[in-house]
Amino acid sequence: MKKFSKKTVIFTGFIVALAIGLIQPESADSKIKTNVPSDLSSDEMKALVIEDFENGTVSDSLDQDGWLAQTKPPKFKGAATEEKLKMKNPVPVLELKFISGGPNDLAIEEWSLTEQGKKKDKCLGVHFQFRYPGTNEVHIIPPKEVDWREKKPVYSYNPSTRKDEQERAIQIPGRAKGISLWVHARGKPYVLDVWVKDYKGQTYVLKMGSMDFVGWRPMFAKIPTHMPQATETYPQTRGSKITRFVLRAVTTSPREELLEDVYVFFDQLKVLTDTFEVNFDGNNLHKVFEGGAKSTGGSTSGKKAE
What's phi and psi for 304, nearest 5 deg? Predict the structure, then answer.
């Protein structure tokens, strides 16, 4: 009878497991193949602050820049001039302000890639009241979109106006896994949602949870795995953006709770994201076409384009 050594049995078992797919070697290669192989790991997971509410402004209309509060049903704009209509206003109170304060447990970001989170002096507060119970909503809409790193205005084509316009949004760097936001609540019957738009224009309503707590608390929403955030062309990452936060009334609550004054405060908006991007010789050559910048690689001269 033929005998097998212990090492032979282990090696044979490994080959069989590999053949049937029980053991699969991990691959760190990018989908984009270049003449320079990927690093040992293609993951650069970071927690980045994308809004710290320290230098923001408040606006009264969509035409102005700054944070904006809107309601459903909408607040009656002519209520201040006619007393009868004022008494029927479905939203007698709607205020959005930057105020001094914030959570004591909030850590300062000493080394911030986005230059956000280095201070914690201010937060964004909203005060509202509805006259009638029902499916009431308060929409907190961000300022006009700027590049998350360079802070320059970003324009996108609006098919309704046929013009390039700044959308109201906050860019999310990289391929995000989750969104967190510090929220101060007073136990009122509301839930908080965050709207995220992918690079194809599809909007996802992500649930951050119930506002039935008192004081400051970090709230979190996971980015769905089926939301597209990358392609097989360069740049591979296709960023998404936050277009609004929505406070929705819990309609099963008692009538008196739905008609009370509500105060909610927000601080430090952060994302957990993978910022890895494939690198190759000449990946910045396109910048020569953007304002006559000097070539940064992949050419023989390094002179300005003519």
Answer: -70, 150
Model confidence over 249-287: pLDDT tens digits?
999 999 999 999 999 999 999 999 988 776 666 667 767
Specify the domain boundaries for CATH 2.60.120 within the chain. Answer: 46-274
pTM of the model: 0.78
For every residue of the chain, which 3-state class applies, written as one string?
A: CCCCCHHHHHHHHHHHHHHHCCCCCCCCCCCCCCCCCCCCCCCCEEEEEEECCCCCCECCCCCCCCEEEEEECCCCCCCCCCHHHHHCCCCCEEEEEEEECCCCCCCCCCCCCCCCCCCCCEEEEEEEECCCCCCCEEEEECCECECCCCCCECCEEECCCCEEECCECEEECCEEEEEEEEEEEECCCEEEEEEEECCCCCEEEEEEEECCCEEEEEEEEECCCCCCCECCCCCCECCEEEEEEEEEECCCCCHHHHCCCEEEEEEEEEEEEECCCCCCCCCCHHHHHCCCCCCCCCCCCCCCCC
CB atoms within 10 A of CB 267: 24
Span 141-187, pLDDT tens digits: 999 999 988 889 999 888 888 889 899 999 999 899 999 999 999 99
Q: Which CATH class is domain 46-274?
A: mainly beta
